[in-house]
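anyone seen this seq b4? input:
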Amino acid sequence: MPEAKLSFFKLIVRDLEGARRFYERTLGFAQVGFFDTPDFVEAILSQPGADFQMMLLQYKDGRDISQAVGHGPTGFFTDAIEAVHDRLVAEGAVAKSGVIVVGDGIKVALLDDPEGHEIELCQMP
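predicted toks r here
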């Protein structure tokens, strides 16, 4: 086992409650922890049966977070890409590509969540 194991990633958001509701409604996340400090609030989200967690962090001082979306997409594997894509859009995500087929029958869709964080859905053949 490695000395350090990848276990979470963090999205910096403007509206923590709105982002939490979005990920709960669309991708089955549930809040499993919460921090409220003088400088920020943070919700810890997890999906049933997953070891990996997503954290949503909102700073309290209103700082500019426009660079917070400057990373690659958050990827999700699914067996129902069209249904998941449609549910994300219905809850406020912006479709960037629709569902496309890439090499060897792999289906991919790119969207932005309501805060502008990129989501990549993948369905293996």
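The beta strands are 8-12, 30-36, 40-46, 53-59, 74-77, 94-102, 106-112, 118-123. The radius of gyration is 15 Å. kinda curious what u guys think
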